[in-house]
Amino acid sequence: MKLLVTGGAGYIGGTVAALLAAKGHKPVIFDNFSHARRDLLPFGVEFIEGEVADRAAIERIFTVARNQNQPFDGVLHFAALIEAGESMARPEIYFRNNTASSLSLFEAMLACGPRRLVFSSTAAVYGDPQSLPIEEDAPLAPTNAYGQSKLLVEQMLTWLHRVHGLRYASLRYFNVAGADEGPQGITRGEAHEPETHLIPLVLDVALGRRPSIHIYGDDYPTPDGTCIRDYIHVSDLAEAHLLALEALAASDRLIFNLGNGRGFSVREVVASVRRVTGHPIPAETRPRRPGDPAVLVASSAKAIRELGWQPRYTDLDGIVRTAWVWQQKRHLAAATHA
Predict the structure, then answer these.
(1) Beta 26-31 vs 180-182: how paired, if at all?
(2) How far apart are CA 216 and CA 188, in angstroms?
């Protein structure tokens, strides 16, 4: 299949694009590099630079492909801002970049593009869950603007499906981590600019890039007082995208949680990095960040049952190990070229 991958220069989008190419599909990456890196573009994959908000540009891409008798078969939509803390300080840019821009993409699809979409959603649409693990029919009540911006996209898709027949799968991720282990070894890991995700931040301490890790809040109603999250390996997540894309051939609307079903606290993540790296990892406690739920842990039973998805990385130390190998390679390469 020929597939447009928005945000395909990023950590998750790039991993999915690389897997698509390896499986014989033809991904075309569309990205503006606002929070991505050119060196993480998958080798040999076609790339077009542009803005998801630019409906006319996306329509041109679809039209040219159709006129060349090489129409797109679907879209995988990853392009978005992703920082919950930032969204509570600047909610307007999240509604502009995540919600309004997505509508421009969907309008282009309805006007002259494919009618099959896999959407990168988030567990943040649930907010503070009423029960654990979280299932797909749990109440949707985001506690931050990031989650709300993604929920609005899901609500738009519900109506576009109902009115126009747009087929879509909405995949609600939990915390994505680790580095992709392909045939050539570990080739792609997590490197946001700036970095705000826990595992790469803790690994930065082990690499000497920062003196300590900040723990935001130690008074949550959890066993050790720190937030608990469900960590899913990026390679497992990529496999789920391909399965969801294939499932849309027979189903017209799919919603799945994607996680490993186990929760780990911030302190447990720090302890895992200490074990894997052998570094002491000094930690400093800071006040809570607004909008952070205490616990987010998924039930992925539906995806396992209906998609036949089988996550391979369920052990936290194993996830951290792949990230550590990649971060060391990246650190060595940066030092060599300095």
Answers:
(1) unpaired
(2) 28
Q: In one letter, which amino acid is 279?
A: H
**Beta bridge pairs of residue 26:** 2
CA separation for the pair 336, 123 (Å, rounded): 39
Give CA 217 to chain center in angstroms: 24
- The CATH architecture to which 180-230+261-337 belongs is Alpha-Beta Complex (3.90)
Cα-Cα-Cα-Cα dihedral sign, residues 172, 85, 31, 67: positive
Q: What is the pTM of this model?
A: 0.93
* Single-letter amino acid code for the residue at 91: P
Place of tokens 């970095």: 195
Asked if CATH classification 3.40.50.720 holds for the domain at 2-177+232-258, the reply, yes or no, is yes
Write out the catalytic residue numbers. 146
pLDDT tens digits for range 235-278: 999 999 999 999 999 999 999 999 988 899 999 999 999 999 99
pLDDT at 182 over 70: no
Number of residues that this document lists for the chain: 338
Amino acid at 229: R
Q: Which two tokens stand for residue 314?
A: 């369920």
Instruction: Identify each DSSP E strand in the chain by its residue range.
Output: 2-6, 26-31, 46-49, 74-77, 116-122, 167-173, 175-177, 180-182, 185-188, 213-216, 228-233, 253-258, 263-265, 283-286, 295-296
Q: How far apart are CA 109 and CA 117, in angstroms?
A: 9
Domain boundaries, the chain: 2-177+232-258, 180-230+261-337
Q: How far apart are CA 10 and CA 215, in angstroms?
A: 26
